[in-house]
Automatic annotation (TrEMBL):
<dbReference type="InterPro" id="IPR046834">
    <property type="entry name" value="ABC_ATPase_C"/>
</dbReference>
<feature type="domain" description="ATPase of the ABC class C-terminal">
    <location>
        <begin position="1"/>
        <end position="196"/>
    </location>
</feature>
<dbReference type="InterPro" id="IPR049069">
    <property type="entry name" value="MRB1590-like_C"/>
</dbReference>
<feature type="domain" description="MRB1590-like C-terminal">
    <location>
        <begin position="214"/>
        <end position="313"/>
    </location>
</feature>
<dbReference type="Pfam" id="PF09818">
    <property type="entry name" value="ABC_ATPase"/>
</dbReference>
<feature type="region of interest" description="Disordered">
    <location>
        <begin position="171"/>
        <end position="191"/>
    </location>
</feature>
<protein>
    <submittedName>
        <fullName>ATPase</fullName>
    </submittedName>
</protein>
<dbReference type="Pfam" id="PF21117">
    <property type="entry name" value="MRB1590_C"/>
</dbReference>
<dbReference type="InterPro" id="IPR027417">
    <property type="entry name" value="P-loop_NTPase"/>
</dbReference>
<dbReference type="InterPro" id="IPR019195">
    <property type="entry name" value="ABC_ATPase_put"/>
</dbReference>
Length: 315
C-alpha cells in the first residue's frame, strides 16, 4: 500500500550522493557501491553470463554468454544484476514493483505444475543468500506481495504510514509457524561471475562521410553516440544531465585509451574513476566546461552496456 516503501528505496538509491542541508535526506547515507536493479524489457545485452539465474533456454541457448537485442523482463533483470556485480557492486536495491514477477519468486503450486527441468529461471529468492555468502553482496528488497522472503531475510522492516519499524522477530515467527513447502532451486552456490573486456572497434562516435565525432547528451535519458542513441531511461541513479554529458565523452576516452582487449570493463572504468578523483573532470574531458558532472563507474558501465554496437570478449 501507500506506506513509503518505494520512497525509502528511492532515497537509499540516491544516498550514494551527498545532499545539501535542508534537503531532507542528509542522513540517508548509502554505500558508494549501491546499485538500483530493475527489469528492463527490450534492453540490449552483450555477452553476459546470466547462468546463475537463467539456464535451459529453449533451443539450447547459451546463458553463460548471453546476448540479445531484446531482453525479456527476467533476462534483463538477471543481466542488470550480473553487470552490477562485475563492476564491484556491494549493495543491490530492488523494488518488486519494477521487477519481473517470475524472476522474484516461483511458488509451490507453480513448482508442482512446471518442474524445474522445464523452467529456465532460478528465482532471486533462491540465490539471494548466496549473493551475500559467496560474493559479499547485500540486497535491500522492497516487497509487499510475498511472505516467502521472510525465510531468507536477515532483517525485516515494515513501513507503517511512512515510519520504518523493525519486525524481524515477528516475521521469523510467522515463517516458523507457517512454513512454505516450496523447494529451493538455487543449488549450493551463487555461481560464477565472469568479467568481460570491451573491444575498441565496437565504439564509433563518427557521423557523415568525414566521420566527424558526434557525442551529445539527451537529458538524463540518453546519449547520442555517433549514429546510436544509448537509452538510459531506466538507469535510475543519474541525477543531472551534466553526468550523461560526461559519460558520453568518457566512453570515447575509454575507447581510445583503455579498451585494448586486455582490460576488463571494471579495470578500465576503475582507472577513469581514480584519475577523476585525483585530477578532476578536466583531466580527461575534451575541454574545460562547467557543464560536466562526476559520474559513477556504475552509470558509465550502464551506458556502455546499452550501446548496441558493443562487442565484448570473455576475460
Amino acid at each position: 500500500g501507500y506506506n513509503g516503501k518505494s520512497t525509502l528505496l528511492d532515497a537509499l538509491a540516491l544516498g550514494c550522493y551527498n545532499h545539501i542541508p535542508g534537503d531532507g535526506r542528509e542522513f540517508v547515507i548509502s554505500s558508494p557501491d549501491t546499485v538500483m536493479i530493475r527489469a528492463e524489457d527490450g534492453r540490449f545485452v552483450e555477452n553476459v553470463d546470466i547462468s546463475p539465474f537463467i539456464g535451459n533456454l529453449p533451443l539450447g541457448g547459451d546463458t553463460t554468454s548471453f546476448s540479445t537485442l531484446n531482453a525479456s523482463g527476467s533476462t534483463s533483470q538477471a543481466a542488470n544484476i550480473m553487470e552490477a556485480i562485475q563492476m564491484g557492486a556491494r549493495v543491490l536495491l530492488i523494488d518488486e514493483d519494477t521487477s519481473a514477477t517470475n524472476f522474484m519468486i516461483r511458488d509451490e503450486r507453480m513448482q508442482r505444475l512446471v518442474k524445474k527441468d522445464k523452467e529456465p529461471i532460478t528465482p532471486l529468492i533462491d540465490k539471494i543468500k548466496f549473493l551475500y555468502r559467496d560474493l559479499g553482496v547485500s540486497t535491500i528488497l522492497v516487497m509487499g506481495g510475498s511472505g516467502d522472503y521472510f525465510d531468507v531475510a536477515d532483517t525485516v522492516i515494515m513501513m507503517d504510514t511512512y515510519e520504518p519499524i523493525e519486525v524481524s522477530r515477528e516475521a521469523k515467527s510467522i515463517s516458523k509457524q507457517d512454513r512454505t513447502h516450496r523447494s529451493c532451486e538455487g543449488g549450493d552456490t551463487f555461481g560464477e561471475v565472469r568479467s568481460r573486456m570491451p573491444l575498441r572497434e565496437s565504439f564509433n562516435p563518427g557521423r557523415g562521410k568525414l566521420g566527424k565525432v558526434k557525442i551529445k547528451s539527451r537529458g538524463m535519458k540518453g546519449i547520442a553516440f555517433g549514429y546510436e542513441l544509448i537509452d538510459l531511461s531506466w538507469v535510475e541513479q543519474l541525477v543531472e544531465e551534466a553526468q550523461t554529458r560526461s559519460i558520453g565523452d568518457l566512453i570515447y576516452y575509454a575507447a581510445r585509451e583503455l579498451f585494448d582487449g586486455k582490460r576488463t570493463l571494471r579495470e578500465a572504468l576503475g582507472i577513469i574513476e581514480e584519475k577523476l578523483k585525483k585530477e578532476g573532470l578536466d583531466s580527461l574531458l575534451p575541454f574545460i566546461s562547467g557543464q560536466y558532472a562526476f559520474p559513477r563507474k556504475y552509470e558509465m558501465a550502464a551506458a556502455i552496456n546499452r550501446l548496441t554496437s558493443l562487442k565484448c570478449k570473455r576475460a
